[in-house]
Write a structure and sequence with these properties.
The strands form three sheets. The chain has a six-stranded mixed β-barrel. The protein has 15 helices and 14 strands. It folds into two domains: 2-53 and 267-415, no CATH class; 58-262, no CATH class. The protein has helices at residues 2-16, 18-56, 68-71, 80-91, 128-134, 159-165, 200-205, 211-218, 237-248, 259-262, 264-301, 304-312, 317-351, 382-408, 412-415; strands at 61-64, 99-113, 118-126, 141-144, 154-158, 172-178, 184-195, 206-210, 226-231, 255-258, 355-356, 365-367, 370-372, 375-376. The longest helix has 39 residues, at 18-56. It is 54% helix and 19% strand. The protein has 420 residues and is of the alpha+beta class. The chain is elongated, with a radius of gyration of 31 Å. A hairpin with a 4-residue loop joins strand 2 (99-113) and strand 3 (118-126).
Length: 420
């Protein structure tokens, strides 16, 4: 009964000081709303950035032979039997609904040469139909067309490579690479289309050819260096990697990698960006905490006579402190609810179609193999929302401790001397 009475006193004090309570609650609610918005914007930006990079790279999950990621040699490839085993495992994947698409690739380093020049390139044999569902590269076409099923001697090249080789759509050039037998052989191809990504390394050093042509030319029937998986979200990467490992049951010569392992540069860039967000949120937390501390502390200093009366009526010093602490908890709870609703509604109402930063970007911005989309669509994650609510609760609780301690140390006789 005594505890219930203390809680009623705390709640009554919140209502009696409506203006102060409203200002304190507004500071906390706005802080939480801003936190939720910034986290949703950061999550959306990261997801778009990762999706762009993995679509142009090795996917959210890459299945390779051991050693290929480190040296990129054709010798470290998945032979036909292992490719078949991977495909069977993908067909029986329980989390198959998480897999948007998958694509086999046969990659090797080589030389692209024409009458004008010769340049080192990365040659990728791809399945045209699967690659169009997987990669954004076909969408970066500026001339001609992308590869199609049935193509044999066609190639899709970057705009810088075409410029330096002085070739156009329909023009021919020679690709030279070391085959599986160790022989250096050339393959004459014709340009089907030209792409531009804005990523220098790709625009001047990547060539797509049909997978069947690459396998025949390089003497690797049915082989692939990578089987790349595109998922609905990067958050599902670890689950799919673990399930695929179980499905393959430790098959020799098969290695399953998540995008963080397959693209360490992208992983590092995302982590650095995350650390920047944490610094910003730490500053935001400090501002909110100081606002709460100031409001409750001023309330304590201006209500000494009230606290003296409460002690004269029978409350102990500790119970007086609990009344002030309870005020802080009530304000924190109300602000958490209001801030959570405000953050979600404001973000969804005004930015559900994305926040356009194109006015700040004169040119395409690329980073770690991905293209930064100027329109960022916020993404809410349940764990991030819960973390935000928990953080504001901790801040409100901690900020209420010192004022409660000050109130508990008031002497009743001295406090009664103060005028209201």
């Amino acid at each position: 009964m005594r505890t219930a009475a203390l809680l009623r006193l705390s709640l009554r004090s919140v209502g009696r000081n409506a203006r102060r309570s409203a200002l304190t609650a507004a500071a906390m609610a706005l802080g939480l709303a801003l936190l939720m918005f910034s986290r949703a914007l950061a999550e959306g930006g990261h997801e778009q950035w990762i999706d762009s990079a993995v679509r142009l790279g090795l996917g959210h999950v890459a299945v390779q032979a051991p050693g290929f990621l480190e040296n990129g040699r054709l010798e470290d490839r998945l032979d036909e039997d292992r490719v078949t085993r991977v495909e069977d495992a993908l067909a029986g994947l329980d989390g198959g609904a998480l897999v948007v698409s998958w694509a086999p690739r046969l990659s090797t380093s080589g030389l692209a040469s024409s009458a004008a020049s010769a340049l080192p390139v990365r040659i990728e044999g791809v399945d045209p139909e699967r690659e169009q569902a997987f990669s954004t590269l076909p969408d970066q076409r500026v001339q001609g067309r992308y590869l199609e099923p049935g193509d044999r001697l066609q190639a899709f090249v970057g705009i810088e490579l075409a410029r330096r080789l002085e070739i156009e759509v329909g023009g021919r050039f020679v690709l030279t690479a070391q085959t599986a037998s160790g022989q250096v052989e050339g393959q004459l191809v014709r340009v089907a289309g030209i792409f531009r990504t804005g990523i220098q390394e790709m625009d001047e050093g990547l060539v797509h050819v049909p997978l069947s042509t690459a396998r025949s030319w390089l003497g690797t029937p049915g082989a692939a260096t990578t089987v790349a998986l595109l998922l609905t979200s990067s958050r599902h990467t670890d689950a799919v990697v673990a399930e695929l490992d179980r499905s393959l049951d430790g098959a020799a010569g098969i290695r399953v990698l998540g995008w963080r392992e397959a693209s360490p540069e992208l992983d590092s860039a995302v982590r650095i960006d995350d650390y920047g967000d944490y610094v910003f949120h730490g500053i935001l937390f400090a501002i909110v905490a100081l606002a709460i501390l100031n409001a409750i502390m001023m309330s304590v200093l201006s209500r000494k006579r009230e606290f003296g009366i409460l002690q004269a009526l029978g409350l102990t010093r500790a119970e007086t402190g609990l009344v002030v602490f309870g005020e802080g908890l009530f304000l924190t709870a109300a602000s958490g609810i209001a801030g959570g609703v405000l953050g979600f509604v404001a973000t969804w109402l005004f930015f559900r179609d994305g926040l356009d930063f194109s006015g700040l970007m004169e040119n395409t911005i690329t980073l770690s193999g991905g293209i930064i989309d100027p329109v960022i669509v916020p993404v809410f994650r349940i764990d991030q929302v819960v973390l935000s609510l928990w953080s504001i609760t901790v801040i409100g609780t901690l900020a209420s401790l010192y004022p409660a301690l000050r109130a508990s140390r008031l002497d009743a006789a001295e406090a009664m001397k103060f005028e209201q």
